């Protein structure tokens, strides 16, 4: 099953919830195996990792592989709920608890997840007051609705996730140490994409299959230079950024191949880094390359140079006159993918 940022899912015919966590790099294999083992028990789980690495995907897979799979999986984004509403969202409220409260009252997230799993995303952003109340739920398995005097027992499993360093937050007094150790019964760290670059081609393939349906495109091939640029780029936004970059590129394509001129401009520079080396006989290498490869390099150089031909020639380690000949050969002077070219100084 492939999950896109739009929330759409595509069934790949595999009933194993962990099959959607793709990749074969050693660190992701370890993380996936830890998650698989975590699904066997009811212990709390703390998932750590940078933004966009797929923490929610891991949490959902653990739930779906557990004995609680038939019960609700309730997600709470601790950073997205306003401070004035967060307690009522977590624990619910009774009639008259506050101005505007529903006369019927409202169950909180823990009650809604009865028998299932509560996923506390971005738990590093939770206030100290709320941390104390969540700790009580974990210790005593009871909740008390806002404005109520009675306690309600709850049977839920808690999985938490954060992109912050909770040990540093504890040192600064912003996160409770007792809650930290209560959550960290099972700890899973998801590596950033830059630490598992060998998995990028597989991610690109999976994302393209899903995004082709969403964008109405039929891209089945990625130019080798584009793939190399993807592998070299550090992806600070991780999988989310990769998917966004691919969706952006698909909106610029008409054929079946993703080429350099389609990908976001900030990734172009990495194609130049791959194909240019100081002192190399790059002119000869270009002449020996396939025509489409040479044209892609010319466009990439112009893009990286802000369409300044002198700078583009320098990037490619060829003379300015040599650049002119190649631009003319490939019809790049007035190409739709470039703006008016500047002479440079």
Describe the strand arrangement of the main beta sheet, using strand numbers. Answer: 4-7-10-3-11
Strand percentage lies at 5-15%
Give the overall silhouette. elongated
CATH superfamily of the largest domain: P-loop containing nucleotide triphosphate hydrolases
Q: Give helix and strand order, one letter per element, not per position.
A: EEHEHEHEEHEHEEEHHEHEHHEHHHHH
| Number of domain modules | 2
Count the helices. How many?
Answer: 15
- Number of β-strand runs: 13
Task: Estimate the mean pLDDT confidence.
Answer: 84
Radius of gyration: 26 Å
What is the CATH top level name of the largest domain? Alpha Beta
Say what oligomer this is. Answer: single chain
Q: Roughly what percent helix?
A: 40-55%
Largest sheet: 5 strands, parallel
Q: Mind telling me which CATH architecture of the largest domain this is?
A: 3-Layer(aba) Sandwich
What is the CATH topology descriptor of the largest domain?
Answer: Rossmann fold
Distance between the termini: 53 Å
Structural class: alpha/beta
Low-confidence stretches: 1-13, 277-289, 334-345
């Amino acid at each position: 099953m492939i999950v896109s940022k739009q929330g759409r899912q595509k069934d790949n015919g595999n009933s194993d919830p962990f099959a959607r966590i793709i990749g074969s790099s050693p660190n992701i294999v370890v993380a996936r195996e830890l998650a698989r083992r975590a699904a066997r028990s009811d212990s709390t789980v703390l998932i750590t990792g940078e933004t966009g690495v797929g923490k929610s995907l891991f949490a959902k897979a653990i739930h779906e592989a557990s004995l609680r799979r038939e019960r609700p999986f309730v997600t709470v984004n601790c950073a997205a709920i306003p401070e004035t509403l967060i307690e009522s969202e977590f624990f619910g409220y009774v009639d008259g608890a506050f101005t505007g409260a529903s006369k019927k009252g409202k169950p909180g997230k823990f009650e809604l997840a009865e028998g299932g799993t509560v996923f506390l995303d971005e738990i590093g952003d939770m206030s100290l007051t709320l941390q104390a109340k969540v700790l009580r739920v974990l210790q005593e398995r009871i909740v008390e609705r806002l404005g109520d005097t009675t306690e309600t027992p709850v049977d839920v499993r808690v999985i938490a996730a954060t992109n912050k360093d909770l040990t540093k937050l504890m040192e600064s007094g912003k996160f409770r140490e007792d809650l930290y150790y209560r959550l960290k019964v099972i700890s899973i760290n998801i590596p950033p994409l830059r630490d598992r670059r060998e998995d990028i081609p597989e991610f690109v393939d999976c994302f393209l299959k899903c995004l082709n349906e969403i964008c109405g495109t039929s891209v089945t091939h990625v130019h080798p230079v584009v793939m190399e640029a993807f592998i070299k780029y550090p992806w600070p936004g991780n999988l989310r950024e990769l998917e966004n970059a691919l969706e952006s590129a698909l909106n610029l394509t008409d054929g079946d191949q993703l080429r350099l001129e389609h990908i976001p401009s900030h990734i172009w520079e990495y194609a130049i880094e791959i194909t240019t080396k100081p002192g190399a006989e790059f002119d000869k290498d270009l002449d020996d390359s396939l025509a489409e490869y040479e044209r892609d390099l010319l466009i990439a150089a112009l893009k990286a140079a802000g369409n300044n031909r002198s700078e583009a020639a320098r990037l490619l380690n060829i003379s300015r006159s040599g650049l002119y000949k190649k631009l003319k050969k490939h019809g790049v002077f007035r190409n739709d993918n470039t703006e008016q070219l500047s002479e440079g100084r």
